[in-house]
Sequence to fold (679 residues):
Amino acid sequence: MPLGPAAKLGVEASALQRLQRLGLIEIREKVQGRSRRTQRVIAWKGSPAATEPTSKKSEENLNAETQSSQRNRREERIRELLETERGPLPLPQLLQLAAVTRAVIERMLRDGLLESWEEPIDPAEDPFDAGFTPPAHELNAEQESALKAIRARFELGEFGVQLLHGVTGSGKTEVYLRAVQETLARGKMALVLVPEIALTLWIGRQCRSWFGARFEGVAVLHSALSDVERAREWWRVRNGEARVVVGTRSAVFAPLENIGLIIVDEEQENSYKQEETPRYHGRDVAIVRAKMEGALALLGSATPSMETYHHAREGKYELLTLASRVADRSLASVEIVDLREDFQQSHNTSPISAALHAGIQECLANGTQALVLINRRGYSWSVLCRSCGASVQCVNCSISMTHHKQRNRLECHYCGSIQAIPKVCPKCQSKYVYFFGEGSEHLEERLRKEFPGARIARLDRDTARTKRQYQETLGAFAGGALDILVGTQMLAKGHDFQRVTLVGVISADSSLSLPDFRAAERTFQLLTQVAGRAGRGELKGRVLIQTFYPEHYAIQDAVRQDYSAFFERELHFRRMMAYPPFTSLANVIVRDVTLEKAIRWSRQLSEYFSPHDDKGVRILGPATAPLARLKKEHRFQFLLKSPKRSVLTKLLSGALAYCEANEIPDTAVLVDMDPLSLL
Ligand SMILES: [Zn+2]
Ligand SMILES: [Zn+2]
Fold:
């Protein structure tokens, strides 16, 4: 322990505390921490007129011209990397990607072509996750008019919410950065929330290069920081050293004062919702905070949540639209593969349809790359008995066990329990057990069989157990050492692979068939996101979506990438079924390891709820929860719907008081306001 302030001053600690209570002194904590490990980050500074420096002794030197053109090519490559492909990069990565020596960079720094700064080494850094095209310094007409609307809001100087709806690749980041710039110019602070850690780093770096390397005013806050780092960043914000805070969900509580702008990027992302107590939604808190501060909340998305878009349409939020991609890059063409037809024609039992097979073949022939998405991991996701129809269930949860072939066992994806692969049916002892439903492990095996010469890798939670494994696979793919990458949803986000011309989705149906009112919205969002992965570079992209339900509007509208058509239809469904955004929803789960207690408590709670039913609230339940048993606990569910949120919150706080009075333990009752999922 280092000496405390009292010991250093040679007085009693209690004396200092007394002085502090009297307000005579202030005690500040200083974070010491181990010496800060930093790395140098290089950014392009812009192109001064002297981009073609001429060598003074060149007349007599025959090689001078070739040398200088070589030099220009190198500089051009570095400019491309830093300005249009990746954005600012740590020095080692830049050296590797540009294949130049350190001396080249040093010279360009001296010539003023580049600038650099030191930044802490981030354990969460993913060198290939810089999968976002750096913002251009010039705005197109749509971006310009969005910015104009933002400026107009600033002029009003009062609370407001704007939704920036921009298709994938439409350049929302440019607009964000300008909005931050405007905020700073008005002497206010800005808070930027992003859905994942990799993005905090990237946006933080963009701010640096945008506002100049000397701009120290960016703090980054996310859960992967060490305690020391987090405390340091927190104090920088608290002491007013940072004027821009970039962070994930909990950064919404950053101790920033004089806030003028709060940005919530990809506002529809589930990661903004904290699923543990205290449950909160980062986006909703951001709006409340903006209201308290009289600031502007700017929500951005390619596929806004139904709630947010509804508010925008009703005029509660102002809608700003970016309808085209920057540089007029076309969206990838999206095609449906009807699996019913495919089966009739080929009697093929492979998860890879004839069309997808041909598409991959074409990629291999052209030397481009393919991404293949499947949203289940493992080998088969169900083990069934042919005689009695029983499936092998987890002992703790009412869910089928997933077969993992390489690990040679069954695993539960909800609680992690493990079982040996049964030789006979556990129920009727028949020998006819079979494996059903393909997972990513199975798909990888199929691809290897169907494309024997191809270089294939798989990316899911089983193969990417560590950040390093994850990086290695993505790195190999980005570097062209792989032809096909198979994986789960992990692949759908963010990555900007320039040579991917084909994205295959094995089944659009698995997310569609979930017993959840958001199933269509999720499916539409996922497919739109996936479609955004193809054709990011110069090459044209193609997306193949395999499905048994090609008629479903979530799939049809995703194919046309028509958000507003999807929104209209989904809104109609929500209105009919009285789901959000037309009602507020709460999910109350009663749970216990003993079935008897879970039943008793849900009956008791039902006694409290039932007199309120149909008095401004619709109460459904108690019913067995869709996941009737989870981690050894039996679960019952109430679903509460009300057009008035206040009625719902009042009823719920009453319910909690009732539980306390009736000795129902608070661990047994789980209240989820605005649930993202009803499972
Ligand atoms: Zn059986
Ligand atoms: Zn389980």
User: Anything to note?
Assistant: The CA atoms of residues 60 and 99 lie 29 Å apart. The longest helix spans residues 64-85.
